[in-house]
């Protein structure tokens, strides 16, 4: 019987995810030569080649993929073992490291932390702000315990590494300069703004979300200005330089900006949380997930609200 080495299996799994020995070494804080040596030793232990050359890169053999398919169940069970030990030793005490994208920190994470201080003072939440896609890289590498991101940047629902929880369908409202001719129009639709100049990032998730929402409404947005930060975007809207889609949970005050809810098809962005498969059994992780879910449920605006001053 093969003497399985969990550390070597983790290295092989990381290579599958990162694609190169160098990237694997960086992720695991090892040297490339140490990674290569460990994988060579693993191949000797199992008695079959695990890697094959592909130009200057290497690719996993079918045998390596077979090994990893079975190893995923081992990793999941080890996560469950860690969870049960943590529950046994700490009970309601524990630390959860949360990686979250920028707007989720003030809107979801901070209120959840405040609530936990009242209901579970022994739970410590460590927050790490990260880009939407980066949050899952941190989760896979074990650098955070829970990742908050956008569904568009999340791994597939069937990804064996993670358990996903849908937290929030965050409505996207249109930011208009105060005094804009459409600011007070009833039944505003995205198509009413097809002729406007739009403000959004040149690339990345928010560019994709803005373009996707407008195209779903039947037009391609004309980008007048490019910006990634909400402060810059809203300052330009306030100055009358264009309009923008803004997530409802963004809380930035601008007296010269009016937010309008738009009619069908109503654009939304989906916010999800994820943990490594099996880690949801940890009581402390479950408690943090529940607190985030409570905050997300409270973010729904009352029906009939169609216009608001941003941040009011």
Brief write-up:
The chain is of the alpha/beta class and 312 residues long. The chain folds into three domains: 6-74, Arc Repressor Mutant, subunit A (Orthogonal Bundle); 93-168 and 270-298, D-Maltodextrin-Binding Protein, domain 2; 171-267 and 305-309, Periplasmic binding protein-like II (D-Maltodextrin-Binding Protein, domain 2, 3-Layer(aba) Sandwich). The protein is built from nine helices and twelve strands.
* Total discrete domains: 3
Number of distinct beta strands: 12
Number of helical regions: 9
Share of residues in helices: 40-55%
Flag low-confidence runs.
301-312
Instruction: For the record, give the distance between the C-alpha atoms at the N and C termini, rounded to a whole number.
Output: 66 Å
Strand content: 15-25%
Overall shape: globular
Keywords:
D-Maltodextrin-Binding Protein, domain 2; eight-stranded mixed sheet; two-stranded antiparallel ribbon; 12 strands; 3 domains; 22% strand; 312 residues; globular; Arc Repressor Mutant, subunit A; disordered C terminus; single chain; alpha/beta
General description of the model:
The structure is a single chain. Helix 1 (6-18) crosses helix 4. 35% of the residues are buried. With 312 residues, the protein is an alpha/beta fold. The protein is 41% helix and 22% strand. The strands form three sheets. Strands 3, 4, 5, 6, 9, 10, 11 and 12 form an eight-stranded mixed beta sheet that branches. Helix 7 links the parallel strand 7 and strand 8 (222-225). Residues 301-312 have low confidence and may be disordered. It is globular. It has three domains: 6-74, Arc Repressor Mutant, subunit A; 93-168 and 270-298, D-Maltodextrin-Binding Protein, domain 2 (3-Layer(aba) Sandwich); 171-267 and 305-309, D-Maltodextrin-Binding Protein, domain 2 (3-Layer(aba) Sandwich), CATH 3.40.190.
């Amino acid at each position: 019987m093969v003497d399985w080495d969990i550390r070597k299996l983790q290295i092989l799994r990381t290579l599958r995810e990162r694609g190169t020995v160098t990237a694997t070494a960086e992720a695991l804080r090892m040297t490339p030569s140490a990674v290569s040596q460990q994988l060579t030793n693993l191949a000797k232990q199992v008695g079959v080649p695990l890697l094959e050359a592909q130009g200057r890169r290497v690719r996993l053999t079918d045998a390596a993929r077979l090994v990893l398919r079975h190893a995923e169940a081992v990793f999941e069970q080890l996560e469950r073992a860690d969870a049960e030990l943590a529950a046994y030793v700490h009970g309601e005490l524990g630390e959860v490291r949360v990686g979250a994208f920028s707007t989720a920190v003030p809107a979801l994470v901070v209120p959840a932390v405040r609530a936990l201080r009242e209901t579970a003072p022994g739970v410590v939440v460590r927050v790490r702000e990260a880009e939407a896609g980066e949050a899952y890289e941190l989760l896979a590498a074990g650098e955070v315990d829970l990742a908050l991101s956008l569904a568009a940047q999340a791994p597939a629902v069937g990804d064996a590494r993670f358990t996903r929880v849908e937290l929030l369908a965050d409505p996207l409202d249109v930011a208009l300069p105060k005094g804009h001719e459409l600011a007070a129009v009833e039944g505003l639709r995205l198509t009413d703004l097809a002729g406007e100049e739009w403000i959004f990032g040149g690339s990345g998730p928010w560019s994709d979300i803005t373009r996707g929402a407008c195209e779903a409404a039947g037009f391609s947005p004309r980008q007048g200005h490019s910006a990634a930060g909400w402060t810059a975007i809203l300052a330009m809207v306030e100055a009358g330089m264009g309009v923008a889609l803004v997530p409802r949970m963004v809380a930035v005050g601008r007296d010269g900006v009016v937010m309008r809810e738009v009619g069908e098809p109503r654009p939304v962005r989906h916010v999800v949380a994820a943990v490594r498969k099996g880690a949801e059994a940890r009581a402390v992780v479950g408690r943090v997930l529940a607190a985030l879910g409570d905050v997300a449920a409270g973010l729904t605006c009352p029906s009939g609200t169609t216009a608001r001053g941003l941040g009011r």
